[in-house]
Write a structure and sequence with these properties.
single chain, alpha+beta, Alpha-Beta Plaits, two-stranded antiparallel ribbon, 3 helices, repeat, 4 iron, 4 sulfur cluster binding, iron
Length: 83
């Protein structure tokens, strides 16, 4: 199971993660206007919430997101033709 932390100071309450999560892991707390984790066990670690969060308020323990440092243009070109 992935442990998810929401940085309440950073969260702007936009609800993007709530709308984007395919597993309904999050809800927007209407009282505080912040995202809360409600179904952590259902998280499949797709990190779509992490990517869409404008304030980078979400952290998944033991999962480290790294930027791609290398892009193979030939592979990308081939994939583009298939897709």
């Amino acid at each position: 199971m992935v442990k998810i932390k929401v940085d309440e100071d950073a969260c702007v309450g936009c609800g993007s993660c709530v709308e984007d999560c395919p597993s309904d892991v999050y809800e927007l707390d209407s009282e505080h206007g912040k995202t809360v984790v409600v179904n952590e066990k259902d998280c499949m670690a797709c990190l779509s919430c992490h990517e869409i969060c404008p304030s980078q308020a979400l952290e998944h323990d033991d999962i480290h997101v790294a930027k791609r440092l290398y892009i193979d243009r030939k592979v990308n070109s081939t994939i583009s033709k298939i897709i």
